[in-house]
Amino acid sequence: MEKPDVTIHNHGTIFTFDLHTEAAHEWVDEHVHVKDYMQTGNGFHCEHRYAYDIALGMQADGLTVD
Q1: Where in the chain does DSSP place strands (E)?
Q2: 48-60 and 22-31 helices cross at what angle (nearest 10)?
């Protein structure tokens, strides 16, 4: 089984998006305003109220999300 483009981790009020592919990085660069304090080593984190819509947008544009 191939690795998904994005893995999402639920930490309660914060969700972490780990980006595994160039397509995922490009999608985030185009669609999400990631502030410096939101960046992680290979992705970003955001408040729970935004996570669902971001995940839906990623899937709608063809990214695989786990």
Answers
A1: 6-10, 14-19, 39-40, 43-47
A2: 120
Structure tokens at 54: 């971001």
* Structure token digits, residue 3: 């690795």
Block mean pLDDT (10 aa), the chain, length 66: 93 97 98 96 96 98 98
- Distances in Å between the alpha carbon of 57 and those of 1, 30, 51, 64? 23, 11, 10, 11
Tokens of 53: 């819509």
- The pair phi, psi for residue 26, each rounded to 5°, is -65, -40
